[in-house]
Design brief:
single chain, alpha/beta, TIM Barrel, eight-stranded parallel sheet
């Protein structure tokens, strides 16, 4: 049986069409560094590895910089579902930080969540793709703002399957958000945490022990700690691997040095995902047919990664 086509780690605000950025900029008088797709492309899409995660995140500047009102947020959410349909995805989990999306124009973060949910629901009905939404607490703004962001997300908890923690991993460690995620779990939401990308295996341990992570976003540096690998295997904690993204953030040097193959050889619940396809200039097909073989995965390992995604999805079955 063919494994379903599933993307568990895709940032909605990292998958905004270049044409939409240009169109929204024109509508709202946003000055861009270029006025057509060809010359705007290098400002939005990664062309060579960034020196680190936060340099990569800088590419979001123009994507979220055109989200001038809730209608714009609704549109990009809807288009994310349309793109998933066009890619042939059966199921996608779209994650987003309402505070991050609201910040450029000072939008009401709750209005952002509501608009995103409306856009996704419209897309679900029109395109028949199964979509789940994950709210992000942006650690970059600190613990106090995270409380405000969490309250906004919990006000719309019926639209979400899980809460994530993303952003500046080394400078805002998991311990700052322990109480936030106790509240997340009390609310009955699932937990996935960005960890082991810009910080080491200790960040993954903290995501699991302090925040209750059921899945880890990236988790690349778990490979440095054999005891952690054993724990991930024993507890069946999923790894949301993003091959091309990890090169572009300089987390790994190249496909051949990515630990995904080793994760799968060890039997870990590792998966293949896109992360920010609009910024990386890729889609899931690229990751499955180009990136995964370049990382040394056999056809059977790719099939296993896809099977793992179906097992670990928060709302697939």
């Amino acid at each position: 049986m063919t494994e379903p086509r599933i993307d568990l780690h895709r940032h909605l605000d990292g998958n905004i069409r270049l044409a939409t950025i240009l169109d929204l900029a024109r509508q709202h008088g946003v000055e861009l560094p270029a006025t057509d797709a060809e010359t705007m492309r290098p400002h939005v899409i990664i062309t060579e590895p960034a020196p680190g995660l936060m340099a990569f995140i800088e590419k979001f500047r123009w994507s979220v910089g055109v989200l001038a009102d809730p209608d714009a947020c609704r549109r990009v959410a809807y288009e994310n579902v349309a793109d998933a349909k066009n890619e042939g995805l059966d199921y996608v989990e779209l994650r987003f930080s309402p505070w991050f999306m609201a910040q450029p124009f000072g939008l009401n973060p709750q209005a952002v969540v509501e608009a995103v949910a409306e856009g996704v629901e419209q897309g679900r009905k029109e395109f028949g793709v199964k979509v789940a939404l994950i709210g992000i607490l942006s650690r970059t703004y600190g613990a106090d703002i995270a409380w405000k962001e969490l309250e906004v997300l919990l006000a719309c908890r019926g639209e979400l399957v899980a809460i994530d923690l993303a952003g500046d991993e080394p400078n805002f460690p998991a311990g700052l958000f322990k109480k936030h995620f106790a509240r997340v779990r009390e609310a009955g939401l699932r937990v996935t945490i960005h960890a082991g990308e810009a910080a080491g295996p200790e960040s993954v341990w903290e995501a699991i022990r302090l925040l209750g992570a059921e899945r880890i976003g990236h988790g690349v540096r778990s490979i440095e700690d054999p005891a952690l690998l054993d724990f991930l295997l024993e507890r069946r904690i999923g790894l949301e691997c993003c091959l091309t993204s990890n090169i572009q953030t300089s987390t790994v040097r190249g496909y051949a040095s990515h630990p995904l193959r080793r994760f799968l050889e060890l039997g870990l619940a590792a998966t293949i995902n896109t992360d920010d396809p609009g910024i990386s200039g890729i889609d899931l097909e690229h990751e499955l047919t180009h990136a995964a073989p370049a990382a040394g995965l056999t056809p059977e390992q790719i099939r296993q990664a896809r099977s793992n995604a179906a097992e670990l999805a928060f709302d697939w079955k």
